[in-house]
Q: What sequence folds into this?
């Protein structure tokens, strides 16, 4: 096992950034810690819960797919190149875990080249959480782990000023070999396990979801009046979808007239124009779009891909302006929805 | 449980039993520490969920326009300006509101408290009180239908203007303004939480959501973001009631009110008008008259 000091971790990021894009948590001028591409201008901050999730590295909020120009009746098109060899540093284990879900989505009915190339060619260096790092954290409830190594190549666990290193994949082993000058021999082999145990036990006192298998009962209760009541608080902003690890709805829009670009941009079910078609809007009322958010994560996604599209990072709980707590919503549904197989009575 | 809460719950229960109102919109305890959440009380037996303390930061008036018919809303002195503006701008009638006033001694800045490691209401000190609160005079500009608890005495506010703001557009040079605006627009992620929480943003369709034609592109580059912030600021010129909700909800913690505070001051200077003071008249930028002294309007 190896060890790396905090100083060396900063230096490692700076050195890697000379050759390839490095995605790491940094503090901006408002004091918000969020993942961003390393440029040396902002301060690196390790182990603090980032405001936004890591999906941005592979799936940016807006990305130019191509540029075009229409001249003399002909269309000139220039596909926009992209770099796929990325280094993702300081990623939370829950963020890394969300890539499993997004891999399914971006390789489902269409192989998304940009997502898949980036996924294949990048290295993920995670920092384990010493416990719940914000009040919203509940990863242990949804089969996550503060020391989880899903999709992770190298996992670091903080111990004082240094990090114990756990190699989690072949790619990670090669990465450490290539950058061996930053790492040193770790004298304390058992320490990593101790830290992991400590982190895991700090979660045990807070089970927030009563029934993790609630998705089985969701579909048959599509028309339940509870949805109207649950969504009353929602102000229809995009915070939960924008900060979410697994929200992946996007829209493709052409910007410009005779010359312009094609952009892929995030879309969110909270917005009024979500899935709006020329003929009509299938979800005109906000409770319908709110139901879409819950059902997509805990209903449709499970049916299609066999896993819940939530890694329980708790960002939506922490930052919702009106404190809509997804765990509370699920527990309320658990109480009112009838047992599996029974159909809800709909009064409205 | 305080006397205010007791009176509030008792009255809410009564209102719903009598069927005077369809719903009581108030606050209940949130799921995280020092956090309240909007509560929609539809049945008399749920009235015991209502609370009121310094964590009740939200402006609930916007929720009232989601209901048809009469609803009761818990309004702080600052929230009352939104009610006045809704009546003034013909969004809802006075008789459709059942206004519940209560004594408020200031609301907290939760994010700053959590960042400072304070998770209890007892630990609130002056620095964690919202900047709008010291400027409050406790005077309801519209008389509430019911007042919970003991009436607060109208006071002369400790400070004439809001405190705690470092950025002031008026004191900046042109380059500094440019830099400030660029920085803000690069950080904005266009979640539109500012718009959605703003009580004065009630358009059925926002211009940035229109796509036939598409006035503002949806991609989040700085130029498009600037477009949104300028449109928003101008639409709120002379209408912003300075509730501070936009800054509270911004996930990127942007100083969004810099423009609004500037415009509030400018409208005051040129038209001697402050929004949310009277249900009569119109906001100055929503009207014109033939005797206008400015040439450009003729």
A:
């Amino acid at each position: 096992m190896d060890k790396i000091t905090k100083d060396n971790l900063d230096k490692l990021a700076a050195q890697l950034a000379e050759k390839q894009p490095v995605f790491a948590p940094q503090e901006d001028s408002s004091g918000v810690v969020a993942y961003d591409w390393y440029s040396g201008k902002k301060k690196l901050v390790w182990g603090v819960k980032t405001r936004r999730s890591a999906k941005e590295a592979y799936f940016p909020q807006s990305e130019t797919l191509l540029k075009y120009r229409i001249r003399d009746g002909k269309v000139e098109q220039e596909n926009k190149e992209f770099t796929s060899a990325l280094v993702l540093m300081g990623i939370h284990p829950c963020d890394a875990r969300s890539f499993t879900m997004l891999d399914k989505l971006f390789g489902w009915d269409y192989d998304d080249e940009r997502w898949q190339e980036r996924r294949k060619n990048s290295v993920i260096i995670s920092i384990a959480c010493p416990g719940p790092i914000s009040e919203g954290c509940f990863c242990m409830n949804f089969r996550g782990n503060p020391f989880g190594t899903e999709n992770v190549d190298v996992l670091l666990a903080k111990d004082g000023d240094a990090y114990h290193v756990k190699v989690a994949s072949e790619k990670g082993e090669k990465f450490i070999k290539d950058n061996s000058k930053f790492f040193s021999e770790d004298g304390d082999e058992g320490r990593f396990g101790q830290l992991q145990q400590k982190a895991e036990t700090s979660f045990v006192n807070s089970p927030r979801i009563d029934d993790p298998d609630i998705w089985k009962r969701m579909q048959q209760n599509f028309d339940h009046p509870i949805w109207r009541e649950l969504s009353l608080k929602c102000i229809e902003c995009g915070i939960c979808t924008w900060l979410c690890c697994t929200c992946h709805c996007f829209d493709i829009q052409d910007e410009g007239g005779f010359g312009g670009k094609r952009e892929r941009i995030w879309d969110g079910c909270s917005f009024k124009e979500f899935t709006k078609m020329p003929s009509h809007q299938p979800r005109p009322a906000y409770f319908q779009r709110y139901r879409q958010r819950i059902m997509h994560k805990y209903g449709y996604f499970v049916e299609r891909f066999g896993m819940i599209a939530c890694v329980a990072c708790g960002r939506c709980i922490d930052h919702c302006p009106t404190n809509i707590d997804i765990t509370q919503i699920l527990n309320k549904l658990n109480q009112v929805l009838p047992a599996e197989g029974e159909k809800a009575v709909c009064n409205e | 449980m305080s006397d205010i809460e007791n009176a509030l719950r008792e009255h809410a229960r009564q209102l719903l039993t009598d069927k005077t109102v369809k719903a009581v919109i108030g606050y209940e305890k949130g799921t995280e520490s020092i956090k309240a959440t909007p509560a929609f009380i539809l049945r008399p037996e749920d009235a015991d969920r209502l609370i009121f303390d310094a964590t009740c930061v939200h402006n609930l008036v916007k929720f009232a326009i989601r209901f048809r018919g009469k609803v009761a809303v818990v309004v702080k002195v600052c929230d009352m300006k939104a009610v006045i503006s809704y009546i003034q701008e013909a969004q809802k009638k006075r008789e459709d509101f059942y206004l519940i006033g209560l004594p408020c001694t200031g609301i907290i800045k939760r994010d700053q408290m959590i960042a400072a490691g304070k998770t209890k209401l007892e630990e609130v000190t002056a620095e964690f009180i919202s900047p709008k609160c010291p400027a409050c005079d406790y005077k309801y500009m519209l008389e509430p239908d019911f007042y919970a608890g003991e009436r607060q005495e109208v006071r002369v506010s400790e400070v004439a203007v809001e405190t705690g703001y470092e950025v002031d557009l008026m004191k900046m040079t042109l380059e500094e303004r440019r830099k400030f605006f660029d920085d803000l627009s690069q950080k904005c992620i266009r979640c539109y939480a500012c718009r959605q929480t703003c009580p004065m943003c009630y358009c059925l369709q926002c211009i940035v959501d229109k796509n036939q034609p598409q006035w503002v592109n949806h991609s989040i580059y700085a130029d498009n973001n600037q477009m949104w912030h300028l449109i928003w600021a101008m639409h709120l010129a002379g209408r912003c009631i300075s509730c501070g909700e936009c800054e509270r909800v911004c996930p990127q913690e942007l100083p969004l009110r810099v423009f609004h505070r500037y415009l509030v001051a400018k409208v005051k200077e040129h038209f001697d008008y402050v929004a949310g003071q009277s249900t009569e008249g119109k906001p100055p930028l929503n009207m014109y008259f033939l005797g206008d002294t400015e040439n450009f309007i003729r």
Chain A has eleven helices and 13 strands. The first helix of chain A runs from residue 6 to 19. Chain A touches chain B through 42 residues (CB under 8 Å).
